[in-house]
Amino acid sequence: MSTEPYLLTPGPLTTSLRTKQSMLRDWGSWDGDFNSITGRVRERLLQIVHGSGTHECVPMQGSGTFSVEAAVGTLVPRAGHVLVPQNGAYCQRIARICRVLGRRLTTIDYAENTQV
Questions:
Q1: What are the φ/ψ torsions at residue 54 (nearest 5 degrees)?
Q2: The model scores a pTM over 0.90
């Protein structure tokens, strides 16, 4: 069995050779080069959304569900109200996150094969 680390991601997806090659180097979160790259990514994202000087970019690592939970928990006020158009498991997960976080929730159900 190989001792190489595995990249486990939710699929389906295709990881390009260029991306795989870039992952051959270990990057520590306190490494100077890592922090420099992260800083450039943050700055560029702020430029793209015209947010330089008024906003911050906080990169988060984790699954899509992790990011949705962070967004709902951070951006939706405790007395806020979230509308979730439900057409599958991912939307059901978003609704559950809202319930667990105590956010008011309204769902609109659609068939799983319906684009919303």
A1: -120, -20
A2: no
Domain count, the chain: 2
Cα(45)–Cα(37) distance, rounded to whole angstroms? 12
Beta-ladder partners of 86: 109
Domain that holds residue 67: 60-116
The SS3 call for residue 21 is helix
pLDDT per position as a tens digit, 80-95 = 999 999 999 999 999 9
Reported residue count of the chain is 116
Residues 80 and 51 in one domain: no
Q: How far is CA 100 from CA 2, 65, 87, 89, 106, in A?
A: 40, 13, 20, 16, 14
Q: Are residues 79 and 98 in the same domain?
A: yes
